[in-house]
Write a structure and sequence with these properties.
Length: about 260
């Protein structure tokens, strides 16, 4: 029985902890290494990990036999992390959001050069993936739309990667130009491909998004809510199971479903 070994980057964070627990429950997968610059110890026992797991606090010191690199770190570190993974023969699964478009293109290009697969997912929640699909369908008939996303107060990027991906999906699917033009985006949020996006950061929230469509005499609202980070693990499981069969960088979990 072949075991697929995984390195978890950002293992000390809330999502990293969920990923460690998920892999423990997955047959034929195991954590062989973890990485976080904020880790205070290199002793795996201090984190409740098996003695065989190697703990790294510096990227340049990582030596591992892991096949998959899964990244839930921070926007400022993710590009360097994923380039490291690609260059060292690992298949990256990227859940870190807030990556600039130029950085994402750099990773796509490098993966293509190496003929190595990976996935960058703005959201691993199946409800969020379906929301984006439904919004793209609705945009064909309701060109006037705005996106509102609400997240916990500690989320560093705003708007979220999911909201930006939703706006771009709406813009790509439109068959008509919107009738309403946003004039004061500084007050309203931001605009991505002509779709206004609003970001809310408050305690008590986890991850929530709604898309508002308006037309003469009617309105349509599509909404998804993630009440617990455990909801993202179904998508992470799919990514872990399928990433090693890819030969290029895939953007969006929907492309693996």
């Amino acid at each position: 029985m072949k075991i697929t070994k995984v390195l978890v980057a950002g293992f000390t964070g809330a999502m990293g902890e969920k990923v460690l627990n998920l892999i423990d429950r997955m047959p034929n997968f195991e954590v062989s290494a973890v990485y976080s610059p904020t880790a205070t110890s290199e002793n795996p026992a201090d984190y409740g990990l098996a003695g065989s797991v190697r703990v790294f606090t510096r990227l340049t010191e990582i030596q591992t036999d892991a096949t998959i690199w899964i990244d839930f770190t921070v926007p400022g570190a993710v590009t360097e992390n994923v380039l490291f993974a690609l260059n060292h023969g690992m298949y990256p699964v990227v859940g870190t959001t807030g990556m600039p478009e130029a950085a994402r293109q750099q990773l796509i290009t490098r993966a293509a050069q190496l003929h190595r697969g990976g996935i960058i997912a703005p959201n691993f929640g199946l409800s969020a993936v379906l929301l984006m699909k439904f919004a793209a369908i609705a945009a064909q008939y309701f060109p006037d739309a705005e996106v509102v996303e609400m997240h916990h107060a500690d989320k560093r990027d705003a708007p979220s990667g999911t909201a930006i991906a939703t706006a771009r999906a709406i813009a790509a699917a439109r068959k008509q130009h919107p009738n309403v033009q946003a004039e004061n985006l500084a007050a309203r949020g931001a605009s991505y491909d002509g779709v206004p996006v609003h970001a809310v950061r408050l305690p008590g929230y986890v991850a929530h998004e709604q898309v508002l469509f308006g037309a003469p005499g009617e309105a349509l609202t599509i909404r998804q809510d993630s009440f617990d980070r455990e909801s993202f693990m179904a998508g992470v499981r799919i990514a872990l199971q399928k990433v090693t069969a890819l030969d290029h960088m895939v953007v969006g979990l929907e492309n693996l479903l």
